[in-house]
Fold this sequence. Notes:
By secondary structure, the chain is mainly beta. The protein has a domain at about 65-180. It has helices at about 185, 380-385; strands at about 1-5, 10-15, 60, 70-75, 80-85, 105-115, 120-125, 130-140, 140-150, 160-165, 170-175, 190-195, 200, 210-215, 220-225, 230-240, 245-250, 270-275, 285-290, 295-300, 310-315, 335-340, 345-350, 360-365, 370-380, 395-400, 410-415, 425, 430-435, 445-450. The strands form seven sheets. Strands 1-7-6-5-4 form a five-stranded antiparallel sheet, with no helix packed on it. A hairpin with a 6-residue loop joins strand 26 and strand 27 (about 410-415). The relative contact order is 0.12.
Amino acid sequence: MKNHVVSRMVLKPYWAFIITLLIVMSCSTEPESASPLSFYAPEENVFPSQDFPNISDYITVIGGSDRDLLNSVIQSPDDGYILAGNTSSHDGDFEGIGREFRYDEYDAFLMKINSNKEIEWVRTYGGSDRDTFEHILKNDDGYTVIGSSTSDDGDFGDHSLFRADIDLDGRIRSVHSIDESLQQNILQRQVQQLENGNYVSVGSSSYYTEFLTIFDKEFNPLTTFDFGNGEVHAIGMVQDSNDGFVVSGNTKSKEGVFEGMHDDLRSGHSNAFIGKFNQVGELEWINSYGGLETDEVHSLIQTRNGNYLIAGVNQTNDGDFEGMGGEFQRGINQIFLIKIDPDGKTIWKKTYGGSGGDNKVLSIHQTNDDQLVMTGVTSDANLMEIDNSITYAFVFMAKMNVEGEDMQIEGYNYDYQIPSHDLWSHASDSRLIMIGNSHSLEIYFLDFELD
């Protein structure tokens, strides 16, 4: 284990470059072909006359000059942040602890950042090959990390798949092997510890892996759950204050538990879903939302009164969104918010924008003063209330009441490459923090002040 402890602010501000973002929209006219989002990021210093601030003004870049992959973030007990992943850097914030890496080698890392955005300590772990942390979870007096290693020496030389007990200062206390045949049920999935001490992982159903696995405290599998044939992808999981946990995601399946929900869903398209499980992995209820074409959930939260909110985009104005949008246009996505009660009953559905471009939800939060804050990326002139001839992409932050009404929206020029996936975010009544990886595998820290 290599470590670096600092007492000064070493986060590096980033103002440097501008990139072309995301994917060019599919030109297919086949009805079964889903259209991905497409955003156009403007050339440097060529912004529309909206007088929006630049998103880069709110971003600080963390790490070194090489590949720094962030896999997991949690809040520390003192309201700071613990970042976990792997790095090939040996400079910048990893100076003095990162080794000279050969091609495709990396070490696992942990980084502690306090609430003032100051790095308190950085530690790297591993041996002479590839070592990574995939998940970090809180335990009674420190952290549990789950990772993998191809090194035959160093911290994890005897463990290809492992869980490690880490103290609050990032020091390894113990390492335990996990059966390596379980890699596809643990790595690159969402993992949380349940109130009874067991663990749950959710991800994507496939021929090789189940949608959901419950493990005991030593990561021995106890039970699995699968929705049946067809693609199912989890995007969010929250511990339920009423016992158990709730999962949301997107499915192309019309079989198993989804049979009879959306039999008219076209081939190749997907609908959103949310389902409630008890602590032993038994499904208590499930809802699906959508119509003929692609309707996808992007974010899930539980509100303080025990209800659930899912946020995403809908391409259709039929099915569950009938009468809630204009004429259907392929690739034009409205934003939706849906509130569901603890028993799975839909309380309300609302849609926003959709007449002039694409939308992508990044996060939805309830603040301490009971407001909703939603962030995303948009080229929707109707949503932003700007000239509908503008096709640039903007980052937006929308604030509204807990019923999804009285929306106030702010725009930011999209001059930094925030991907629309794999990020961690948290909102209070005064700040919105977003931490993630850029497309070039830099780690960014985005800090908004909320009015």
